[in-house]
Write a structure and sequence with these properties.
The chain has three helices and seven strands, in the order E-E-H-H-E-E-E-E-E-H. By secondary structure, it is of the alpha+beta class. The chain is elongated. The N and C termini lie far apart (66 Å). The chain has one domain: Roll (Ubiquitin-like (UB roll)). The strands form two sheets. Strands 2-1-7-5-6 form a five-stranded mixed sheet. Strands 3-4 form a two-stranded antiparallel ribbon. The protein is 28% helix and 37% strand.
Length: 103
Amino acid sequence: MLIAVEVVYAEPNLQLMLPVHIKDGATIQDLLSLPIVTAKFTWLNFNNNVIAGYAVGVFGAVQSLDYVLNAGDRVEIYRSLPIDPKEARRKRAKDAKKAAKAR
């Protein structure tokens, strides 16, 4: 039996969504290894069952590549962030404080 899932990836100027039908009981690794997926997401590079530089999740929750998919799952490919979100907030607060003092 086949189940319907989708694979998504987003950057500020790029959003990709690919609906896929896969065997019931398949894992995220099985999904990301499909030719239709590797053709669309050409930068994915498997190395010892890890996607180099990327994490994956389902509906916002990080999952391992051996996660068994369910019908309707949205598999998300997460890119690494250029800066830690906490550090970005600290920098914005520091910059705002400097700007307030300069007034």
